[in-house]
Amino acid sequence: MYERAADDGPLRPLWHVAGATTFFAGPLRYNAGHQHGAPVFLAGLYGNFRLRVGTQDWTSCRTAMIPAGCVHELDLGGDPLGVLYLEPDRFGVEALTPLLHGTREIAGALLGAAGETTPLRDLFEHRDGASAAGPALADLLAFA
C-alpha cells in the first residue's frame, strides 16, 4: 500500500478554486446526506471510503462519480478524501467517468474499485499543492 509523506506535522486541508474546477483534499469524518449543483469525483486518498447514495445501503469504494443533484452521505472516519467538482456548464459527467476503474452503478452514481487517486494524493501531500493544483488538474482532465 502507499506510504504517507514524511511527517513534517499534520497535512492541512487543501482548497483550489479556479475557472471551471474546484478541488478539495483533506481529512473528513462524516458528511450527512447532501447534494451538489455540479458533478463531483471522489477519491479515497489512501484507501476505500464508505458511501451511501440516496436511500441505498452503505457501500465501500475507492472512487465515485456523483452526478449533480444526487443525494449522498460519506463516512471516512477521519481519512483524507480528494474531491473534484466540475462546473456543469463546462463539463458533463463524461469528463469524470474515465477517472474511475472497476465501476458499478448505484442509484445514478458510479462507484469504482480503483481509479485516478495518485494525482490527487500528490497534491494533498505536497506542501505547495495549492500552487500546483491548477496545472495538475488540467492535465488530469485532459488525459481522462
Description:
The protein has a single domain (15-142), classed as Regulatory protein AraC (Jelly Rolls). The chain is 15% helix and 41% strand. The chain has two helices and eleven strands, in the order E-E-E-E-E-E-E-E-E-E-E-H-H. The protein has helices at 118-125, 129-142; strands at 14-18, 21-27, 30-34, 40-44, 49-53, 59-61, 63-66, 72-75, 80-86, 100-106, 109-115. The strands form two sheets. Strands 1-2-9-4-7-11-10 form a seven-stranded antiparallel beta sheet, with helices on one face. The longest helix has 14 residues, at 129-142. The mean pLDDT is 90.
Summarize the structure.
By secondary structure, this protein is of the alpha+beta class.
- Spatial order of strands in the largest sheet: 1-2-9-4-7-11-10
Largest sheet: 7 strands, antiparallel
Number of strands: 11
Give the name of the CATH superfamily. Regulatory protein AraC
Question: Uncertain regions: pLDDT < 50 for 5+ in a row?
Answer: none
Q: What spatial form do the alpha-carbon principal axes imply? A: globular
Topology summary:
Elements: E1 14-18, E2 21-27, E3 30-34, E4 40-44, E5 49-53, E6 59-61, E7 63-66, E8 72-75, E9 80-86, E10 100-106, E11 109-115, H1 118-125, H2 129-142
Antiparallel strand pairs: 1-2, 2-9, 3-8, 4-7, 4-9, 5-6, 5-8, 7-11, 10-11
